[in-house]
Amino acid sequence: MIHEALARGAAVRVVFLTYGDANELSFALYRRRPVIAPHAVLEMGERRHGEAVAAGRALGLEPGQLVFLGYPDFGTLAIWKAHWRDRAPLKSLLTRVTAVPYASAFRPGAPYKGESILRDLSAILRDFRPTVVFVSHPADHNVDHRALYLFTRVALWDLPGEAQPALRPFLVHHPGWPSRKGLHETDTLDPPAAMAASIDWQRVPFPADARAAKLTALGAYQSQMRYSGDFLRSFVRTNELFGDFPRVALRPGAGDGLRSSAEGSARPDQLTDEERARFVGVEWRSVRLADGALVVTLRLSRPLGEAVGASLYLFGWRADRPFARMPKLRVELGAFAHGVFDQDRALRRETVGVEREAREIRVRVPLDALGRPERVLTSGGTSFLEVPLGSLAWRVVELPAPRARRAGRRGSSR
């Protein structure tokens, strides 16, 4: 798309959320086996920065058209979930810092907080005023890719009338996808089977000269091509693929406004024998509005067992209140009990209601506990001792705004 836009004389800006300094070690970190010193990680970030500049140059981009925010690789979804307002900045597991450490970044020294990322994205959107934004997908299994979608969504909601571009999410990481790895230039890029029917996918033709340009640009990422070259080359096909989940608008008494199947599970080769034996997946979820509460139902592949839990996230947004000040609820569900948290602060269990059947769990969350939102960003999944098993993509649910609420501009979230 960059190649096509430049050929037509369009203005292009590329924004990198991180410097990619975690590289291929992300899964090792989940296993708590860090093996690289902080200075080496920062050196990898600088190398990845140089590779990105070279890739951009191969497509015809000048370095000034690239913006690097410098937030922690493999850490931005954790910032999204629990580092807002009075919470401390995230401390990167790899670099051991709590603020952007790169001098070439958009805002060196920016703390690893949710408000910081929103501030940077909002400033870039205000300055550039794009007509279309291509962004990573909410069902992507790379945590930073999911985070960038979420922060971008909120940044655009916060700028009504200033920047309302079309949003074109694209998928990169999904278990077993694409099915054929390596360079197959005459193949089409089709969506994962689990998501083929839930999204109205847009296939944009990808001519031969653009495929050649993409291969050249990918070749600039030497640090990644060395260990995942076949995977990266599998995206050089006859088309690009874009699509987002449809808008979900709930109304009282209208029944389930969202019923979606799970968007993926951990790959068997990434699980130990014990984890495979304990596996519990999320088969589907539904959401409805009833008696001043959001009711979310999770259907599991089998009942939760020892050390296997399910998580449910519900983050509210409203036009007249900074997103940083809105509740960010996490409901942790065990085999027999549950806990409720706002970021990492424990709330009373009675904040939400939980009903259980053998393989089905219903969670009733009062809208007051969510800050009376107009929109809710929600996700969920299962895990065994913090190792992810099944996952649900982040979805946007729209709620009716109370009549008494005055439409107005929100103050600063900083």
Overview in brief:
The protein is α+β, with helices and mostly antiparallel strands and 414 residues long.
Descriptive notes:
The structure is a single chain. The chain has 414 residues and is of the alpha+beta class. It is built from nine helices and 19 strands. It has helices spanning 2-7, 26-30, 38-59, 76-82, 114-128, 143-157, 208-219, 222-233, 273-277; strands at residues 14-18, 66-71, 132-136, 166-170, 202-205, 239-242, 248-249, 258-261, 264-265, 282-290, 293-300, 308-317, 328-333, 338-342, 345-347, 353-356, 360-366, 375-384, 387-398. The strands form five sheets. Strands 7, 9, 12, 13, 14, 15, 18 and 19 form an eight-stranded mixed sheet that branches. A five-stranded antiparallel sheet has the order 8-10-11-17-16, with no helix packed on it. A two-stranded parallel sheet has the order 1-2. A hairpin with a 4-residue loop joins strand 13 (328-333) and strand 14 (338-342). Helix 5 (114-128) packs across helix 6 (143-157). It is globular, with a radius of gyration of 21 Å. Residues 26-32 and 406-414 have low confidence and may be disordered.
